[in-house]
Design brief:
Residues 68-455 form the Amidase domain. Keywords: Membrane, TPR repeat, Transmembrane, Transmembrane helix. The chain crosses the membrane at residues 17-34. The protein is an alpha/beta fold. Helix content is 51%, strand content 11%. The chain contains 23 helices and 11 strands. Strands 1-3-2-4-6-5-10-11-9-7-8 form an 11-stranded mixed β-sheet, with helices on both faces. Helix 7 runs antiparallel to helix 16 (451-473), helix 19 (522-535) packs antiparallel against helix 20 and helix 21 packs antiparallel against helix 22 (572-585). The radius of gyration is 29 Å and the shape is elongated.
């Protein structure tokens, strides 16, 4: 370097030297800018989702007559927590990667997917060490949220969610401890499934907190989501028709500022014309948990606030985070003590907090967890599905510096995610379009071990949910009456209650009021028709069903009830036509099959 400076000084008066220097500097600047742009182009091409690109080919298909591989032709990505033979599993941290050897075996779940015909195309970026739900990574960059590029994608499985949302793969794997699959699915507008804790193999997956976390997966297509679930959970392909009872968590929807006509009402209307769904119920989850999880009381009292729904769920999430810190410390204390200074600031704080955690109340923490599982099982039994908002807020802006607003966001987010994490039950995030530029999602939760029941439900209801979400996005905002429901819905619910109480005339009056308030709802006409049938007013029932069909041509119940009315009026040919039409819309409908067969005999 000194020789170069001496040479420059001795030739400083020579213009040619300065030309050479200028060209050299310009060349360096151009090369740096070219490299920067190339990196940016590559990042934009895959939305910054991938950490390593490679290809793991599927296993050869079995010879006939064995069934075809269920995931044949599909591609998938995996978070940086899954082992792949001869690759170092980095856990979202360059320091972890530097201090560990390459994996000797591929994770069991990855091998299972390869055996079922899928192709793995790479590893994706994740939050460091599996902490957090934001999705930012200061070392590798934050994957770009395809829906909201200026906002975070959610974590910890950020890259896996983005790779699906950007249509780079058909599905992907992530880990979900405190919401690591459910939250990025909500922020990126895709499906995300957290199975019952412990039902999917974690062999070859780096643990953050083993009693809370589980392998989860993302997809945009519900059939792909279910195919992956069947492969990983080794489920039977036979779908069992069962009654389903949806239970809306009223207090949790109060946490969200999404209009209920775009969330609660979308779900309610989606199931109105589907068979096998009971009248929806409502619950205050915070109160239910407070009443049935006695061990949580000491943690509520520690907050110094009266025990209401919000404080109960905040206490539950504080127990969840305490368990996470304790188990992380147990798993990785030695490494963390040595390498914590190399972590990003947010995750360094998480690790330091974990290392400082003490074990005095560990038994109490796990007691809350055990009671929580029993509580959710008691609430949902074998046919219940709890409906909650997946998240309460839109995705935060990238690099948010305001700690207060970020902490409030995390409090609300963990309050919602702690229900499944602490009970071990399965949960699916379902996108419902957008409100302005932000994605909307709800979650369905069901009891521990009810994974197939939940996957079957998604297949059954997803198309109807998307249809109703589109309709809701075009509606003008409505003001809420009586807490959660518009006035017409209140009248309809009163009509339903009267109908169940066999008060047919009262039911007719309530449904009539609902129709006056909203004459564009097929269900109101269809429900009034059911009450008219009970009263023997067959012509009025026929008219109401016809009106319902004009509003909704695919309303199966309208065809069934009009068929019943026409049969009672001895118009067998027209009745048979209605039942046949119901079978076209719903080929497995037993009522329509029996009625159509009965009428064929009568007419012959």
């Amino acid at each position: 370097m000194s020789n170069t400076l001496t040479l420059i000084q001795s030739n400083a008066s020579n213009p040619k030297v300065w030309v050479v220097i200028g060209v050299t500097v310009a060349g360096i600047v151009i090369l740096a800018e070219t490299r920067k742009r190339r990196i940016k182009a590559l990042r934009e091409e895959d939305f910054g989702a991938f950490l390593d690109r490679f290809e793991l080919l599927p296993f050869p298909p079995p010879p006939p007559p064995a069934a075809k591989q269920s995931l044949s032709g599909l591609t998938f990505s995996i978070s940086d927590a899954f082992d792949v033979k001869d690759y170092i599993t980095g856990f979202g941290s360059p320091q972890w990667k530097k201090t560990h050897e390459a994996a000797e075996k591929t994770a069991v779940v990855v091998t299972t997917l390869l055996k079922n015909g899928a192709t793995c195309v790479g590893k994706t970026i994740m939050d460091e060490l599996g902490f957090g739900v934001i999705g930012e990574n200061k070392h590798y960059g934050t994957p770009i949220n395809p829906l909201m590029p200026s906002n975070v994608p959610g974590g910890c499985s950020s890259g896996s969610a983005v790779s699906v949302a950007a249509e780079l793969v058909d599905f992907s794997l992530g880990i979900d401890t405190t919401g690591g699959v459910r939250i990025p699915a909500a922020f990126c507008g895709i499906l995300g499934f957290r199975p019952s804790q412990g039902t999917v193999s974690s062999v070859g997956v780096l643990p953050n907190s083993q009693s809370l976390e589980t392998v989860g997966w993302f997809a945009s297509d519900p059939s792909v989501l279910c195919q992956v679930g069947h492969a990983l959970l080794n489920l039977s392909a036979v779908a069992h028709r069962r009654q389903r009872s949806l239970i809306f968590a009223d207090d949790l929807f109060e946490l969200s500022d999404i209009p209920k006509q775009k969330s609660v009402h979308v779900v309610r209307k989606a199931i109105e014309n589907l068979s096998g769904y009971q009248t929806p119920k409502h619950v205050n989850v915070g109160q239910y948990v407070a009443s049935n999880v006695p061990s949580l009381a000491e943690f509520c009292e520690q907050s110094g606030k009266p025990q209401n729904s919000a404080s109960t769920l905040k206490a539950l999430s504080s127990v969840m985070l305490a368990i996470q810190r304790h188990e992380f410390k147990t798993n990785h204390e030695e490494w963390s003590q040595t390498c914590k200074s190399f972590l990003g600031p947010r995750f360094s704080n998480d690790v330091v907090t974990a290392l400082k955690s003490r074990n005095e109340s560990i038994k109490s923490l796990y007691r809350v967890k055990n009671e929580m599982r029993a509580t959710i099982q008691s609430l949902l039994k074998e046919d219940g599905i709890l409906v909650i908002p997946t998240v309460a807020d839109p995705p935060p802006k990238l690099n948010t510096k305001n700690k207060n607003s970020l902490n409030e966001f995390l409090d609300r987010t963990y309050a919602l995610s702690s229900i499944a994490s602490m009970s071990g039950c399965c949960q699916v995030t379902i996108p419902l379009g957008q409100h302005g530029d932000r994605p909307i999602s709800v979650s369905f939760l069901t009891y521990y071990g009810g994974d197939k029941f939940l996957l079957d439900t998604i297949l059954d209801v997803y198309a109807s949910l998307q249809d109703q979400a589109k309709l809701a996005s075009n509606l003008a905002p409505v003001s809420d009456t009586n807490g959660n429901m518009e006035a017409s819905e209140v009248m309809k619910e009163k009509g339903n209650a009267a109908y169940k109480g066999r008060q047919w005339n009262k039911a007719v009056n309530f449904y009539t009021e609902a129709i006056k308030l909203n004459g564009a709802n097929a269900t109101y006409f269809c429900n009034r028709a059911a009450a008219f049938l009970e009263l023997g007013c067959f012509q009025q029932a026929e008219q109401d069903c016809t009106e319902a069909m004009l509003i909704d041509k695919k309303n199966v119940k309208a065809y069934l009830r009009r068929g019943t009315a026409r049969e009672s009026l001895v118009r067998y040919k027209e009745a048979a036509a209605d039942f046949r039409h119901a079978l076209v819309l719903e080929p497995q409908n037993k009522t329509a099959k029996i009625a159509e067969k009965r009428l064929r005999k009568l007419m012959s």
